[in-house]
Design brief:
Layout lengths: L20 H12 L4 H13 L1 H15 L4 E3 L6 H12 L3 H8 L2 H4 L2 E10 L2 E10 L4 E3 L7 E5 L2 E6 L5 E4 L14 H24 L4 E5 L6 H16 L10 E5 L4 H23 L3 H5 L3 H4 L7 H28 L7 E3 L8 H11 L8 H8 L50 H8 L6 H13 L3 H17 L3 H10 L5 H21 L1
Antiparallel strand pairs: 1-10, 2-3, 2-7, 4-5, 5-6, 8-9
Helix pairs in contact: 2-3, 2-7, 3-5, 3-9, 4-12, 7-9, 15-19, 16-19, 17-18, 17-19
Length: 510
């Protein structure tokens, strides 16, 4: 808990004001040796004073916090344990705790205290409390074991088991105090502070010409003081009186000089900070195209996945394992908590590929396509979106008489066959319009239309297979397909005949 005095009195500490290169170098050397109090104070102040750094850091932290946690229960774990862990992850405060752990990205580590109590028949954390990293210290030998800072003990005290969740992100190798992004960003913070101060001083006199007073060599000290007072008065009063023989010259100041010097330096520094924190600058600084900048939550995908994996490992080690052990006893296998990052899908490319390949015979499950598009399975009795039916033009004249049926009887349709062009099928049905076997005839029509499918598929697939076999690259294959693409004439003819026959069967039977 914070205190008014002692090692946990941190409310009135400050480092950033008046920070010099020498002071920053000494501060970082202290942190590398384990004395990190001033470094942690600077890291906190940087998030308040350096706006670009604070924005980029917040983007990365919120990207992790926005990922929905997923509980993975391995085989062999009892169902009761899996249900309890699901309840723990879904409980109040868990998502906020994950966001508090991400403070370690900047400072090298973050500690959250667990407040345990019995509720719902289980011993579980009822609240998660973030603790200031200055309340802790590392052991003085290895600088890897986090200990509780206490008054009167330079080595601190070991952390009680099951009392804290300690997250130490691994963005680079080395001791935790050298891993946080605040360490390299500290130099950028100091440089941008100096540049802003100089630019502010430049802006104060920009637009107001420099005043240069010239006095004769024979001028007395009183004359020189009079000229100096006049030059100074022009800065605020824009008016002055000087003796005859003295001269005032106004030198013009170009405003773009400040932008090219100070603005260019600040822009360079901000871009390096963006690379440090987010791993890229496209979505934050350069303003590239939407396709280029469409990174998940503006954080490079590999960094976000690594952050989620490391946070999940910390939660499993310091929270899930202790929660399961105190309620169900030690286990050989524990449930895991992950933060899976959904891969962005190119919806246009997916739908275009499916629409082209399905007619060629590719079998695609609707559930898989819906999952790629982010669509759920429709519920029973739910209104569905369907393609609009094209209106059928009415026949302009009387229906022509059908030619007589051939003497031969076609098998399967009691005198009718799919694909028959002689008109006998429709004539046979017209003679018996209440034929109770119309449904059977339609089924036989479909079976007949699907027979000899190789006559349809070979002209469609053979050119593609030949192009793929003789091509050395994708471009060669596409060029070959363009020269001799799939032949769908057999398919179109078969569909046209079957559709016309089915329409005739339905019209006469109805």
């Amino acid at each position: 808990m914070p205190t008014e005095i002692g090692v946990r009195a941190v409310s009135r500490e400050g480092v950033a004001s008046g920070l010099s290169p020498e002071g920053l170098a000494a501060l970082l050397r202290e942190a590398a040796g384990g004395q990190a109090r001033r470094y942690l104070t600077l890291a906190e102040e940087m998030e308040e004073r350096y706006l670009h750094y604070a924005s980029q850091l917040q983007t990365r932290r919120l990207a992790i916090e926005a990922i929905a946690p997923a509980v993975v229960v391995p085989d062999g774990v009892p169902a009761a344990i899996g249900d309890a862990v699901h309840g723990l992850v879904d409980g109040a405060g868990f998502r906020e705790m994950v966001g508090e752990l991400t403070d370690g990205i900047a400072k090298g580590y973050s500690a959250v205290e667990l407040i345990w109590d019995y509720t719902g028949g289980l011993l579980r954390p009822i609240s998660y409390t973030w603790r200031d990293p200055r309340f802790f210290q590392f052991d003085r030998v290895k600088l890897t074991e986090l200990r509780l800072a206490v008054d009167g003990n330079l080595d601190g005290e070991p952390l009680p088991p099951g009392k804290f969740i300690v997250h130490m992100p691994r963005s680079k190798m080395g001791i935790p105090l050298r891993r946080g992004v605040a360490r390299p960003a500290a130099w950028a913070f100091m440089l941008q502070s100096f540049s802003l101060k100089d630019w502010a001083a430049f802006s104060e006199v920009y637009g107001m010409p420099l005043r240069i007073g010239r006095y004769p060599v024979s001028s007395s000290p009183d004359d020189i003081r009079t000229l100096l007072r006049a030059v100074r008065s022009i800065a605020s009063d824009a008016a002055a009186v000087i003796p005859m023989g003295m001269e005032l010259e106004f030198a013009k100041v170009e405003g773009q000089h400040g932008t090219s010097v100070f603005g260019g330096l600040l822009d360079y520094i901000d871009k390096q900070v963006s690379k440090l924190v987010l791993g890229q600058t496209m979505s934050s600084d350069d303003g590239g195209s939407l396709a280029q900048a469409k990174v998940h939550n503006e954080v490079r995908g590999d960094i976000l996945r690594a952050d989620g994996r490391q946070v999940g490992s910390t939660v499993r080690r310091d929270l899930v394992a202790m929660f399961v052990a105190v309620n169900f006893g030690p286990q050989e296998i524990y449930p895991d908590v992950g933060f899976p990052v959904a891969e962005p899908e190119d919806v246009a490319a997916l739908t275009d590929g499916v629409s082209k390949l399905v007619p060629l015979g590719l079998r695609v499950g609707q559930r898989e396509v819906r999952s790629k598009l982010g669509l759920s399975d429709p519920e029973d009795n739910e209104e569905l979106l369907v393609a609009r039916a094209e209106p059928v033009a009415a026949s302009p004249g009387p229906r022509p008489a059908l030619p007589p049926a051939p003497a031969a009887t076609h098998a399967g349709l009691r005198g009718h066959v799919a694909g028959c062009r002689c008109g006998g099928c429709l004539a046979r049905l017209a003679a018996d319009p209440v034929d109770p076997d119309a449904a059977t005839m339609t089924d036989a029509l479909l079976s007949e239309a699907a027979r000899d499918w190789r006559e349809i598929t070979d002209p469609l697939l053979a050119p593609i297979a030949a192009a793929m076999a003789g091509a050395g690259s994708l471009d060669d294959a596409l060029a070959a397909i363009g020269r001799r693409g799939p032949d769908g004439s057999q398919l179109l003819e078969r569909l046209a005949v079957a559709t016309a026959t089915a329409r005739g069967i339905g019209s006469v039977a109805d």
